[in-house]
Design a protein that fits this description.
This protein is an alpha+beta fold. The strands form three sheets. It has a four-stranded antiparallel sheet with strand order 1-8-3-6. The protein has a four-stranded antiparallel sheet with strand order 2-7-4-5.
């Protein structure tokens, strides 16, 4: 997100490494900051219920660490990689300098809320196969490359029964679904096959993000 814009020389931007696991256990820890993933990929959602781990945070979004510190919201790094980090204190002191960054942060926050609402609608009106495929496609769209490999723990709980069926018929499901399962990880092999199985919810989110 930030890489698309020319930043002032006085802009205080730090490059950090995000490691797979809980976000607050990473480099940002308890610091009040904004994190803009470069090639890292995170999920965010409530700590319980249908919204658990639903929203993707990748190269087209950002995460406010205060949103997952001392609240019922949780964020996890699903694909390790790099991110930009901006501390809140200097941004609050010099809001004019950081105006573009703060606008992007507000827009990204709205995007996370739209994701939660869209996926909640999706799982109530579409099959688990459609929802899982659409959810994976939206995650893939947050990556700067076309690859995605995530731990099965990253899959929202209500979508995991679909994975159980895939494990029972691994070869057949890989050919039909566009993804495969190996050593507790899900690997996407075919974006086209995923799109064939998916509902239109990932396309709805993409269209909404373009309008912002």
């Amino acid at each position: 997100m930030l890489s698309d814009h020319a930043l002032p020389a006085s802009f205080r931007l730090e490059s950090i490494e995000l490691h797979e696991g809980p976000f607050l256990a990473n480099a940002a820890r308890a610091r009040a900051c904004l994190v803009f993933p470069i090639d890292a990929l995170l999920t965010m959602g409530s700590s319980h219920g249908i919204e658990q781990g639903l929203s993707w945070i990748g190269s087209h979004a950002c995460l406010d660490s205060q949103a997952v510190s001392g609240t019922t919201m949780q964020a996890y790094v699903r694909v390790p990689g790099q991110a930009y980090q901006i501390d809140w204190p200097p941004a609050q002191v010099n809001s004019a300098l950081y105006a573009d960054c703060l606008w992007h942060a507000a827009s990204a926050t709205q995007g996370l809320i739209r994701q939660m609402a869209q996926w909640s609608f999706c799982v109530q009106h579409h099959t688990r196969e459609q929802s899982l495929s659409s959810w994976l496609l939206h995650g893939l769209a947050q990556r700067p490359d076309s690859a995605l490999s995530i731990h099965l723990a990253a899959i929202p709980q209500f979508l995991r029964p679909e994975l159980a069926q895939s494990q029972d018929h691994a070869d057949e499901m890989q050919a039909l679904s566009g993804y495969g399962l190996a050593q507790d990880r899900l690997q996407i092999f075919s974006r086209q096959q995923l799109a064939h199985q998916a509902c239109s919810c990932h396309q709805t989110l993409k269209a909404q993000s373009v309008k912002v």
